[in-house]
Amino acid sequence: MKIALIYSSLTGNTEKVAKAIFDSLPGEKALFRNKKDNYNLDDFDIIIIGYWCRRTFMDPLSIDLVKKIKGKKVAAFGTAGMYPDSKYGELCRERVRNIIEEENEFIGDFLCQGKIPEERTNKRLNLPKDDPHYLDEEGLKRHIESRKHPNNEDFIAAQEAFRKIISNHVK
Ligand SMILES: Cc1cc2nc3c(=O)[nH]c(=O)nc-3n(C[C@H](O)[C@H](O)[C@H](O)COP(=O)(O)O)c2cc1C
Predict the structure, then answer these.
(1) Pick from 37, 46, 57, 79: most CB atoms within 10 A?
(2) Is it the case that residue 171 has pLDDT exceeding 90?
(3) Other C-beta atoms lying within 10 Å of the C-beta of residue 94
């Protein structure tokens, strides 16, 4: 069983989680950055997709990637501004699972928070209060919490999640 981990990362959070997971993967494996590194999907049995969350879904590069994968065992992990254990986080994971399952066997996933750029927080704080993207007190708390992630606990949780996922599929 050969594993490819292919990740997208705009501001570096998902890349950090990707490297932590990759280091702990057993067996034959390769790490790629989506659209920067070349890979041939046919060379691998298991594909792990690393995405950053955008609009309750994968980022656009990861969506393009998943559409190209057919007949493989596929797992995913993501980082998001939203809390992973919220309704939003659950919906994001469900949508990721659904798109993977269209053409593949979904074998598991992981989601944690990732630091939201401060410019983004400030931009949303400065919106008119009736704008749907205006950041209220709860929202601001969440943005500030996101600055602590991904942290060591997230890396360990991600490694543990993938240890289980992969051990069920690499014999
Ligand atoms: C342009 C942009 C759009 C974002 N949109 C969302 C979003 O819709 N939902 C969300 O939970 N987080 C959103 N975030 C936060 C990112 O998902 C989060 O910070 C993630 O860890 C970024 O990963 P990266 O550093 O690997 O790019 C957004 C961040 C950026 C920069």
Answers:
(1) 79
(2) no
(3) 12
Evaluate: CB of 82 within 6 angstroms of ligand 1.
yes
80 and 154 share one domain:
yes
| 108 lies in the same domain as 30 | yes
**pLDDT (tens digit per residue) in 32-87:** 999 999 999 999 999 999 999 999 999 999 999 999 999 999 999 999 999 999 99
Confidence at 94, pLDDT banded by 50, 70, 90:
very high
**Please, which residues bridge with residue 73 across strands?**
46, 105
DSSP letter, residue 75: E
Residue 144: strand, helix, or coil: helix
Q: How many domains does the chain have?
A: 2
Query: Cα 7 vs. chain centroid, distance in angstroms?
Result: 8
- The answer to whether 142 and 80 have CB atoms below 8 angstroms apart is no
41: Cβ contacts below 8 Å, ≥ 6 apart: 4, 47, 68, 69, 72
Q: By residue range, what is the domain housing residue 127?
A: 115-148
> Across-strand partners of 57?
54
Ligand 1 in contact with 26 (CB < 6 A)?
no
Q: Is 58 left (phi over 0), alpha (psi -120 to 50) or beta?
A: beta
Confirm or reject: Cβ of 80 under 6 Å from ligand 1. yes
Please indicate, yes or no, whether residues 45 and 13 belong to a single structural domain of this protein.
yes
Q: Which atom of ligand 1 is nearest to the CA of 11?
A: 25
